[in-house]
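Throughout this chapter, every protein is written as a compact record of paired, labelled lines. The reader may check this reading against the record printed directly beneath this paragraph:
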Amino acid sequence: MLCAQYNYLLADRFNWYEQNRSPVNACPLVCYLPELRNNPDYYSQKKTLPHLKKTHPWYSEIHSQVLQDVVKRVKVTFDRFLLGDSNGKRSGRPRFKARNRYRTFTYPQMKDGCWRGNLINLPKLGKIKVVLHRPIPDGFKIKTASVTKKADGYYLTLSLEDKTVPEIKPDFNPDKIAGIDMGLKEFFTTSAGVVVNIPQHYRKAQKRLRVLQKRVSRRKKGSNGRLKAVKQLGRQHKKVADKRKDFHFKTANWLLSKYDVVAHEDLNVKGLARTQLAKSVLDAGWSSFLSILTNKAENAGLLVIAVSAHNTTQDCSNCGEKVPKKLFMRWHNCPYCGCSLDRDHNAAINVRNRAEGHPVLKAQRLLSNSRIGCEAYTIPVLRLV
């Protein structure tokens, strides 16, 4: 029902857009003159919900705020198509969703006391048992709840608020800095020469996925057997995605436990995913890993810096001279200074060197030096007293 309402509201916006986007002085000679009406926006479409429950009484079974959240999703989707996001980047034309593509609904507000033990009280649905991923801390208030249907069952996502938690301010050691060079032979190489191997979860699961995909293609469309085969294939893909996500989180934790500042190349992953290396790039999941790394660094008060990837592999990390090399050449030998080391290790050092001139690091070093000077001045006074 939510999917049908989403498609209806999106179609209403498209109808207005197609009929009213042409200005009066540029109207073609032969055209359809629609009935004049205001642009459907968030508030005007929300006002149609009471009438919807009168004409379609079964929509009364859905919580009112869940229906209002559908209107909000349509607004966000259409605004990104016309206006773009905060960076001005516009997305493609919104598509109507099939029934199996609309997987999440959200409760924007949750009442106090909705959580009891391992039960959550969702309006219009009642008390539902939840298998906890981790216990909810004391003092935290549940703000929103989202229910998502995935390949292996339903998942509940909660957003929590605790006003007593202070805002984390960056307080890091600018000298504990590392550069990482992302790769496909190894997942990444640090500027200290540490290599993290790439697990290649998708390639290892390809044999099983091939069997399940054949099973889907051989089933008759619309049959229960095909639906069962599709579910098996979806569970296998989710298993691969969960393994990759677990690897990303553990690797990010390890990296941030050793360094306060991590620098990486500003890669165009979307462009690389259109090349012949697409399968390997997407299997590595660079974008997902860098996003996780950045978020965990912010929560820990640490710093992740993206630097230009131009010639990080070609330039010598010791003397700065350009040493051209092709992709199959995995060793860096500089004829100018005699520097000889692994190609990825050389690139990681270049990434670290470029990050050291970052203005945030310079400011932090100045702050650290001022603290040291202040302590050196006050300690003798305290001894005299």
